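Look over this entry.
=====
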Amino acid sequence: MDIQSLMKELHFMQQSYATLFSVTNKVQAQGDEKLDILTSRQHMTLIAIAHMSLENATLMNIARKLDTTKQTANKSVTSLEKKGYVRIEPSKTDKRSINVVITNEGKQALVTSSEKTTLFLEEIFHEFTTDEIETFWNLLQKLYRFDGKTQDGFEEKATLEFKEQLQSDLDSYQEKVLTEFSKRRYGGANNE
């Protein structure tokens, strides 16, 4: 390969890295503003916990799911605990560990923030087609694997169980949110 081609390729890598860094910061900052009751990090921490069984929701596993340090996960869990959205329980399987449990208030916070989160995602991706979003996700996963490790993603269903009233609220919220999402994304057309 000639030097010009190598320089061009390196330039695109540098620009991609710088843009990824900036986009991550921008999305987190604007997400913090839009989510209102939760920061983006707190929201993702609750989502991570919801994707784990109770016995697996340890600080170490939360950190692994979010690909962050145990100290950063602990800071996020502590802030959620202060808000009453999670509680800490001793692990029944490992006396050296604790388990993080989402409280009913935390579940309600997730339901309440779901509309804002969904509409924020629509705002972020409004210029993308569904195929472009899928390609983007696949490319991000490919980028994540640069060191040979795959992401412990969020593809599996969350394990949260809701009280009957909260489940009813969630179902109602979901219908309302999807209607608004469809209206914004497709100009009101119901594409079922």
